[in-house]
Design brief:
Blueprint lengths: L1 E6 L2 E4 L4 E9 L7 E6 L6 E6 L5 E3 L7 E6 L4 E6 L8 E9 L3 E4 L3 E6 L1
Parallel strand pairs: 2-11
Antiparallel strand pairs: 1-3, 3-8, 4-5, 4-9, 5-6, 7-8, 9-10, 9-11
Length: about 120
């Protein structure tokens, strides 16, 4: 069993920064891709950023140049540094990991609210 715990969400003014963290716990032998998704009210969940076990990163076009994803393999943690936040970044952010066997796990979500 694997579970994820996110932290770091909150209320911030436009132009501000937040750092999200996610810790994966449980029976984990290997984590392939770690990522962050978000879901705004009335919208579908979308990929924000992902990082492979080898360190390759990809970002949604809307966050390129503002967000940075990183991971600590020794601690089974993934981070999302969010700078120059905009009102349209307001959403619930979810941590996601993909493990061998085409399995994945999701966190419970952390709310990020950006005030204009």
């Amino acid at each position: 069993q694997v579970w994820l715990v996110e932290s770091g969400g909150g209320l911030v003014q436009a132009g501000g920064s937040l750092r999200l963290s996610c810790t994966a716990s449980g029976t984990i032998f290997r984590i392939n891709t770690m990522g962050w998704y978000r879901q705004a009210p009335g919208k579908q969940r979308e990929l924000v950023a992902a990082i492979t076990s080898g360190g390759s990163r990809n970002y949604a076009d809307s966050v390129k140049g503002r967000f940075t994803i990183s991971r600590d393999n020794a601690k089974n943690m993934v981070y999302l540094q969010m700078n120059n936040l905009k009102a349209e970044d307001t959403a619930v952010y979810y941590c996601n990991i993909k493990i061998p066997g085409s399995l994945e796990a999701w966190g419970q979500g952390t709310l990020v609210t950006v005030s204009a």
